[in-house]
């Protein structure tokens, strides 16, 4: 069974991450969810725990024991990391090597694990040159992006920034060339 880390960040699209977790779990993947504090403002950990049958992680200091430092053990067991939705905040943290929460710390601790990032934010945020530079930086480091789509956004604006369709995200994960 392949292990997927699903990172959920602060975006109104966080509710769609529940569909992603549910679809991947039903397809036989072991999905471990890591939520940022902002994500927990939009959707509860209990939703993901119910769908994946796994504990949901968000406090990087909760699970430290001499034999299991959770951000390291999660990073080691991951076959793939999917961040959906990915806020401008998490993209900026990763592009600049900032590891100050459970999700960014786990991603920084990963070695040779493919990371797929699904941006979701307001159009003006998405096209901001700083965000675009951070995306370019991560792409140069080998991170993969599942581009947002154009839609009427939660704020009422029409533009690019809506989370990619759930089916597209799940199909991209399934099409990944898994290591043996």
Fold and architecture overview:
This protein has a single domain, classed as 3-Layer(aba) Sandwich (Rossmann fold), CATH 3.40.50.1950. 42% of the residues lie in helices and 19% in strands. The protein contains nine helices and seven strands; from the N terminus they run E-H-E-H-H-H-E-H-H-E-H-H-E-E-E-H. It has helices spanning 14-26, 39-42, 45-52, 70-77, 88-95, 102-109, 123-126, 129-140, 166-175, and strands at 3-8, 30-35, 80-86, 115-119, 144-145, 149-152, 158-162. The strands form two sheets. A five-stranded parallel sheet has the order 2-1-3-4-5, with helices on both faces. The longest helix is centred in the first third of the chain and has 13 residues, at 14-26. The chain starts with a strand and ends in a 5-residue tail after the last helix. Pfam families: Flavoprotein. It is an enzyme of class 4 (lyase). Its EC number is 4.1.1.36.
């Amino acid at each position: 069974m392949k292990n997927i880390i699903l990172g959920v960040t602060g975006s109104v699209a966080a509710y769609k991450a529940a569909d992603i977790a549910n679809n991947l779990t039903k397809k036989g993947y072991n999905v471990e969810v890591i939520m940022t504090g902002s994500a927990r403002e939009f959707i509860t950990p209990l939703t993901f725990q119910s769908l994946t049958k796994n504990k949901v992680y968000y406090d990087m200091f909760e699970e430290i024991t001499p034999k299991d430092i959770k951000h390291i053990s999660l990073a080691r067991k991951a076959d793939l990391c999917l961040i959906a939705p990915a806020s401008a905040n998490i993209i900026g943290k990763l592009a600049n090597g900032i590891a100050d929460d459970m999700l960014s710390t786990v991603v920084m601790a990963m070695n040779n694990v493919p990371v797929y990032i699904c941006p979701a934010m307001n159009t003006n945020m998405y096209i901001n040159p700083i965000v675009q530079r951070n995306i370019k930086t991560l792409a140069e480091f080998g991170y993969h992006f599942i581009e947002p789509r154009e839609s009427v956004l939660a704020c009422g604006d029409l533009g690019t920034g809506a989370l990619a369709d759930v089916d597209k995200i799940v199909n991209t994960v399934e099409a990944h060339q898994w290591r043996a």
